[in-house]
Queue: 2 jobs
Job 1
Amino acid sequence: MASQPRPRIRDVAEVAGVSATTVSHVLNGKGRVDAATRARVTAAAERLGYRPNSNAKGLRSGRADTIGLLLPVGADLEQAHHVLAVEFYLTLAMNTVEAAFEHDQALLQLPPLRGLDDLRRFSVDGGIVVDPLPLDTRVAMFNELGVPVVTIGRDILRTQDPWWVAADSAGSTGMVLDHLAEAGARRIAMLSVDIGWSWFADAQQTYREWAGRRGIEPILVLARPDKLESSAVAAAAEVLDHRPDAVYVPPQWLASGLLRVARERGVDVPGDLLVSVGVDSHLARTSEPPLTAVDLDPASTARQAVDLLIHRIEGGEPAGPRLIPTTLHSRASSLRTPGAAHRP
Amino acid sequence: MASQPRPRIRDVAEVAGVSATTVSHVLNGKGRVDAATRARVTAAAERLGYRPNSNAKGLRSGRADTIGLLLPVGADLEQAHHVLAVEFYLTLAMNTVEAAFEHDQALLQLPPLRGLDDLRRFSVDGGIVVDPLPLDTRVAMFNELGVPVVTIGRDILRTQDPWWVAADSAGSTGMVLDHLAEAGARRIAMLSVDIGWSWFADAQQTYREWAGRRGIEPILVLARPDKLESSAVAAAAEVLDHRPDAVYVPPQWLASGLLRVARERGVDVPGDLLVSVGVDSHLARTSEPPLTAVDLDPASTARQAVDLLIHRIEGGEPAGPRLIPTTLHSRASSLRTPGAAHRP
DNA sequence: CTGAAAGCGCTTACAG
DNA sequence: CTGAAAGCGCTTACAG
């Protein structure tokens, strides 16, 4: 419990019989230092459990060795109905933490930013903004303060910005639609939402193009973006009115509403209707029936985002956006087993 | 995009026509400063968008104005089956962030700590360790470095430690058992797990005492702590072998296994079996039937933990542990509607 | 290869 | 009520 005073660089220098300068050189791999001296310094630092004071280091170097993470959820997340994506965000966060750690950076969780002053209170070398809205204000704040920023998800209106990492929505959509078509679907609808996140925007565009190429009239229903159960149910009812034989649902939070309405109408999944959702989750895996879903690989996404941010912090050239490949987990909801239709 | 140089305290001093000392006094509410001077300084700081450099501040004061949060999940959380509690942890994390922010503290997400050196790399004034195991190593590391620490959940073996905040497990258990008894249950079992978290340990003890007071033989089945689906199912089968008419399941991740086994055996919930789970979640709310569950109020828990930690950082006397009251959300799984039993 | 010295931007005795 | 000066623990030209 007794907090012994933390060793300073001069303590290490003393033990090693050199100057603080030399200790600094050794520890930071700068300058030329004799191998024997280097060994003595390393040993002394090790023995004392020396860790440079990050405030002093940061003050001198102007770097905080800290990056900020801004999730699109606040403290009121219990209320929000997109709680279904919590696994995704928590996985994203924990992987960001570990990736940052491996790069010798600490990870600051930023609260929702109400203004520039909120952001100014944190000293970070860079920031990661998750799920930017079109012309995202949070990104603008980082830019305004000259702090390097990278987004997870693309800001669909900042078309010149190369500093983002995102799961491949267009590719995923093509994969899902092809999968449903191969399973025999002829009238494939999309049930989505009108939020400006690239995951949804790109899915819609890809769906339209895909339908166009096949000369099919797209059936596209957008739920209200309020994430309320009632809106989900209303949109589900509307899409079923079109009598599709398959539905792709990029926003995973609309899936349970769709299943419920289908059940109420006696529409069997997968017998009468194939379903695939956009973001894999425990719920998708344990749903009845289990739902075919796209695995967005939040772990890789987080790591790529940290890499890209550090590249930007170090003044690197825009390395271009990074698209993260996805995987389709095919489950019972999209498997048309002959004879399984119209089970009682 | 152009990063204009950040204003320093001397810039503010210059604009206000005073010394840096006075600016510091005004901004930190120290010393006596003339009201007019104070106003000029405040205005100047405001106009320049001045924010003290936290590294300089920290170097001088020895404080980092940063607290660390250590969740019991790592980057591999997709694998772990306790993903069901992700809402709880994410809510905890986001509320910790906001509470810290309101106390002018930044919140560092700490990665899993493999040793003292990992912890030394972070400069934090204090730490919050979530769900400590008995004689928790992470807590020991903070103590070893002399960094104030507070736990969310009680370390059941460090009985002298008053620095914790936890949802009231004993109270919740009593509430659930009474609720089930009032609904008519006579043979109330507990399906839990042998992990040393206080939430589970206290629930078991309370259950035993409760049964003892009523002269009932407790039916207590503990699942293996590996969080595998197979272990959950095995434990569920074992508890149903005892033919209980109600089960309280403190670890929420065992609930779906119980429901599945009950369905397979033709045991109707709630007709033949009342069920209540320990941690409320979206899954509990949307389960079929919806599950009666304890709301642990992670938001209050997080805020109290931050309060307590700051109290400890400031050298306050042990204020004693803080028990967070819980709420029971009574849902269909524990409502014995006469005649509802043995629905097809 | 090594070290003395300056300075990063603050806060805090201390003097006036 | 106000300010000059020291110093927190580092890193980095610079000199030797």
Job 2
Amino acid sequence: MKEELTKHSVVLFQQKGFSETSIQDIVDSIGVTKGTFYYYFTSKEMLLMEIHERYIDDLLNRQKAILEQIESYRAKIVGIVKLIIHDLQTQGPNGRIYFREMRNLAPENVEKIKKKREAFRLNVEQVLRDGIQAGEFRENLQPKMIAFAILGVTNWSYQWFNPSGDVSVQELADMYVDFILNGIISERD
Amino acid sequence: MKEELTKHSVVLFQQKGFSETSIQDIVDSIGVTKGTFYYYFTSKEMLLMEIHERYIDDLLNRQKAILEQIESYRAKIVGIVKLIIHDLQTQGPNGRIYFREMRNLAPENVEKIKKKREAFRLNVEQVLRDGIQAGEFRENLQPKMIAFAILGVTNWSYQWFNPSGDVSVQELADMYVDFILNGIISERD
Amino acid sequence: MKEELTKHSVVLFQQKGFSETSIQDIVDSIGVTKGTFYYYFTSKEMLLMEIHERYIDDLLNRQKAILEQIESYRAKIVGIVKLIIHDLQTQGPNGRIYFREMRNLAPENVEKIKKKREAFRLNVEQVLRDGIQAGEFRENLQPKMIAFAILGVTNWSYQWFNPSGDVSVQELADMYVDFILNGIISERD
Amino acid sequence: MKEELTKHSVVLFQQKGFSETSIQDIVDSIGVTKGTFYYYFTSKEMLLMEIHERYIDDLLNRQKAILEQIESYRAKIVGIVKLIIHDLQTQGPNGRIYFREMRNLAPENVEKIKKKREAFRLNVEQVLRDGIQAGEFRENLQPKMIAFAILGVTNWSYQWFNPSGDVSVQELADMYVDFILNGIISERD
DNA sequence: TATGAATGAGCGTTCATTCAT
DNA sequence: TATGAATGAACGCTCATTCAT
């Protein structure tokens, strides 16, 4: 039941937004009463918190696996990009909430989640830094800014990409890996 | 007064979100009463609509100028990237609302705004398409997806970039132009 | 278990009030679940009813003993005053509920308790009436009003007296006996 | 309207208790909506706070007048007793709330009211102390405890006395003045 | 004897909106 | 042009109670 509530909440939050989704909406969507919701969650915020935490924890775990298993820094970046893009299909709504609704958490919870999100980004930064030193990436890159740029490319796709449209998730991932690695210019200046 | 209301609304919406900002909050921030608000706006949604429309119209105008005045396609892309990034400083709050709060518009209004946002993106797409044909950009690019990638890099910065931090808006813009044009890889494989 | 539930309820009711204490609070305080509560009590009101009834029945019994065993009417009054005041220490919380929470009983239960409370008071009244006739008390007293006055002095102490403070229960009882018998004036006019 | 709301609230609180009276009950009783209530009061607690404060402030003012205008200490005590008893008629419901519902205020507000209530009692204590020294009252009295006893007699009447019954407020006041001054015993032992 | 899941009614509160002035 | 009183619907949440197990 708790799982059920979470699952339906995620879909609703993604469709209408956290503030715009009422507990009534959630419980109506699975035919139980509000009391039931509060039997499983102490508050609406706690539900959002759980969704956030579960998502980022999962992401961090899988990022860790990539960082440990793959050797070249280029391959690590490729792995992380593909990780995010592939989630579009399997975790779509979860991700869309994750990338939007954080304002509605209490300050202390925002902090907790922010730390984990930063950890994810800092890992990307570290790969870039190491890869620059190893000569795999260009020397004049600012790791921090470029990490944000890469995450911008991938995360932004959660705003518009339709996994069941013309372009498949695989194709998108390949294109973005190529874009990130090579840019768009036809030949070096 | 209408201007005043809009300006303060933008700041509040950006800080707390549209749903989380009450009309009371808005009018309190400039010391008038709710009646006054409804003298100038027919509804809270209409205010949001105006903010959106004004922002995207302005963006489209300036994009148009770039497209018309600059010759090379590379330069056009550079121009558009710099346009978005520079707005971080001058239009920060406006942009942040623009990139987030669209859910709260009625379907017909969403459609209206969406069309204009698409126009902006389609212009980027067109530049890419033309640039590919002209040999300025790599041939194997999918213009649509790459347009989204470029906008991802730039728009995402509205989520985290602090214009008064270590890195200036100019520096960020330069870095992102470089990233978009050249990617991160050190040398072609 | 029933005893356990009652005992903890009494303490909680006294601390927070009947309406402000939830069944959850009660069962949490002894580590069982709500189901258990409803196994032993048909409703929250019934618990309150039992507390009230038990308290007043006990009080009536002990009042009866005093009325039967002691001869002089003055001594009977002294006995009753001491009975109430001494309960402050042994029955504190019980008494405090008794003197406050009756509103939350159903009308028919209120009636039942009220009758017993009245019986207690009427016994005081009777002692006064008999004592006046026997010349032990002043002639111009209205027994009913004076009974209320005496109970006011004693019962009110449940609102403020701290049995473990400077003044002991014994001292308070002695003072109040003296006050009730002699008043405060220094000499007869 | 605010006055109206307060007046009806007082009656309802007295009849059913604070927790047992809903905002809906209050607004229904004068045919407005809940929104109206919250236009005038920031919370239910604030309403209770206002009732308390208004009542105790008024009481303190009138007590002050008595303390200043009347010379003998006996007369001062008589004045205070009559003040409280007479309020039964004019302020009945207000008083009944005052003597019961304080648990529902936030700690800081409880403190504020408690201080004022204590001031009232301490004034009685002071009169007793001065009166003892002046020889108007018996020497062996403990002012603090006796102050509580006197207030017990008077305040308790708010629990049972019906001003429109057999005994008038004046008669009750006279009886209680007599009781407090002389006690009930027929002759000294 | 005790649990735990579920209910449903109600509560205090918020808020966009209306409208007479 | 602006106010302030009022509305009414909705919201997050609580809680006494039920009941199958």
